[in-house]
Design brief:
With 606 residues, the chain is of the alpha+beta class. The chain is 32% helix and 24% strand. The longest helix has 23 residues. The chain starts with 24 loop residues before the first strand and ends in an 11-residue tail after the last helix.
């Protein structure tokens, strides 16, 4: 029986062969990963999308002369016989490490010029070179694996959403401008001179319209576009989110539905790392007070506490005077287990001063002659009784320390949160080998803009205020403090200090929606003009609905352990929002501008 002819380029991939294939004649194609010359015998690591196979060409091979010419990243085709490696030469680090292919024929399919960056070894290289030659960068093992993992994560998200009863729908990319909190990317209309489409910052209004249309459970892996200034935690220009919406639900329904979905995604790809099983639900105000952040890293065991009562009327005049002068003053303690040394406390104090702060008050406890002794200037000023009360409240012992921040919490909570993070990092208190998730709930509906002297929305303007119309009317009559005290049915999912999802129950009642926007300075006419489709839809029977969106890029970054979002994205822009590979943004031709009825104004000289 005649053997079937081999495929023109390959009978197997470079990740397929095993010892069971020994004796087979096969054909492989791929990139030359590296070439090694061991005493006249050539070893070529041949790589493709699936793996690496070691090719052996000795001087007796008919293709030895051709093998001597190949260089890194050349594309070649190799015919040969599979042989099982001796036990002493097995490579346990690759799937094909039990075999090697003895070459009998070699054809160069494509040569590579001198490389602008190395693929083998994944050496550190300037980011602008990596992005300009992204097609080479993507050949690197770690980045290539991250992109594959990204597709697997998205596929698993789709699977879990389908199992949860959701159906995927695609919403428009060309749409109308919408105030989602960032600038829109505008697209000029050729057939409507002087008018513009916008790329969606999120499918917010469309997914709500789907609920009004009766589709009940929607989801989409949605591209979102925001013309934002560069940020370390977000890719310039575009990003992807797992977007979803549900009808006839309350906040608890969204949380209980989506918690197992996101937990399932992390568990599937956690490689054995623990994943939080029951997500804590932390009110926004409590998160700020305990962690100094609305996206706390719960891997850090430090929980801040209010110790104002122990400083009121005390001998530490700095805090005591602040408490006496301003009723808003609170003193927060940042307990630091194992931090009980003057050297560490001085380092923390120096760090605080480098952040532009006057310093960071502290006390610590040490063991002396079998007794626990407090130390530090604050301990000496407030006396043994107050010091002991603070220690007992915080559960500290000899060898531990405590830092203090005082004033109006609205002005210092971010610094306090940073100090908490710093102490946790410095003392190695953070268990980084886990995924710690939680919900942050009860966000403020409004906030006061001190610069503009006006009330504005804290987060999503389409969310339902807790208490509905009655709460809005009552708070409006009582004034600014009452308005900023209103909570919204809004929630975030947080993992390891990153916000990975955000959502809310929507304000589906037209008059409540108008009232909410009026308080924020937008008239009924403006609401009808800017949100006409949504406002009009609400006049014709809108179900109670809500949803959320999870950041796909951020979830992938956390799961892969990548240091930044460009390490999990195919063709990202740089931090200046430039695509160095394709050369965008670029100037348009005079003809293109003329067709769009656009004239480019010269930049003003600085």
């Amino acid at each position: 029986m005649t053997a079937a002819p081999l495929h023109r380029y390959r009978s197997h991939t470079c990740g397929a062969l095993r010892p069971a294939d020994a004796g087979s004649t096969v054909r492989l194609s791929g990139w030359v990963h590296r070439v090694r010359d061991h005493g006249g015998v050539l070893f070529i690591d041949l790589r493709d999308h699936y793996g690496i196979t070691q090719i052996v060409a000795d001087p007796d091979s008919p293709c030895f002369a051709a093998a001597e010419t190949v260089r890194a990243e050349w594309v070649i085709k190799v015919d040969g016989v599979v042989k099982e490696r001796a036990a002493s030469t097995v490579n346990p680090n690759i799937a094909t490490g039990g075999i090697e292919l003895f070459a009998r024929d070699l054809e160069v399919l494509s040569k590579a010029e001198e490389l602008p960056l190395p693929v083998f070894g994944e050496l550190e290289y300037p980011e602008d070179i990596r992005l300009k030659y992204r097609f080479l960068d993507l050949r690197r093992e770690t980045l290539h694996a991250n992109i594959v993992k990204r597709t697997q994560i998205i596929s698993h998200m789709r699977k879990l959403m389908g199992e949860a009863g959701f159906t995927e729908y695609s919403t428009p990319i060309l749409t109308a401008s919408s105030p989602e909190g960032a600038r829109d990317f505008l697209v000029p209309s050729r057939i409507h001179p002087g008018k513009f489409y916008a790329l969606p910052q999120a499918p917010q209004q469309y997914k709500q319209l789907l609920m009004v249309s009766g589709f009940d459970r929607y989801f989409q892996i949605a591209p979102c576009f925001r013309d934002e200034d560069p940020r370390a935690d977000r890719l310039p220009g575009e990003f992807y989110q797992l977007d979803l919406e549900m009808s006839f639900i309350e906040q608890e329904d969204v949380l209980s539905t989506m918690e197992p979905v996101l937990r399932g995604v992390f568990e599937q790809f956690a490689d054995g790392k623990p994943v939080t099983q029951s997500f804590p639900r932390i009110a926004y105000d409590d998160a700020i007070r305990m962690y100094g952040s609305d996206k706390p890293d719960l891997r850090n065991p430090i929980i801040m506490q209010d110790v104002t009562e122990h400083f009121a009327g005390s001998g530490f005049k700095v805090f005591a005077g602040m408490i006496e002068r301003d009723p808003k003053t609170r003193i927060w303690a940042i307990p630091a287990k194992t931090g009980g040394s003057r050297a560490f406390c001085d380092r923390m104090n120096g760090w605080a001063q480098a952040q532009g702060q006057p310093g960071l008050g502290y006390m610590f406890w040490r063991e002396e002659n079998g007794a626990r002794e407090p130390a530090g200037p604050i301990a000496k000023n407030i006396g043994d009784e107050r010091t002991e009360a603070i220690r007992a409240q915080l559960g500290l012992e000899a060898g531990d320390a405590c830092f203090f921040v005082g004033g109006d919490p609205a002005k210092f909570y971010k610094f306090a949160g940073e100090a908490r993070n710093r102490a946790g990092e410095e003392l190695n208190l953070i268990d980084k080998d886990q995924f710690a998730l939680c919900w942050i709930i009860d966000f403020p509906f409004y906030e006061w803009n001190e610069d503009e002297k006006m009330i504005e929305f804290s987060h999503n303007p389409f969310s339902m205020p807790q208490g509905g119309m009655e709460a809005l009317v009552k708070a409006q009559a009582e004034g600014r403090d009452a308005l900023t005290a209103i909570k919204a049915y809004q929630y975030d999912m947080v993992c390891n200090g990153f916000e990975i999802a955000s959502g809310g129950i929507r304000n589906h009642v037209p008059e409540t929606m108008v009232k909410a926007f009026e308080i924020a300075g937008l008239s009924r006419e403006t609401v009808e003009e800017r949100f006409g489709g949504l406002y009009r839809a609400f006049q014709y029977g809108a179900p109670p609905h809500g949803g959320m969106a999870a950041g796909v890029d951020r979830v992938v970054m956390l799961i892969t352990g990548a240091k930044n979002l460009r390490e999990i994205s195919l063709f990202p822009m740089n931090q200046q929002a430039m695509d160095l590979l394709m050369g965008s943004p670029a100037e348009a031709s005079a003809k293109q501008l003329g067709e769009l009825h656009i004239r480019v104004m010269p930049q003003a000289k600085k």
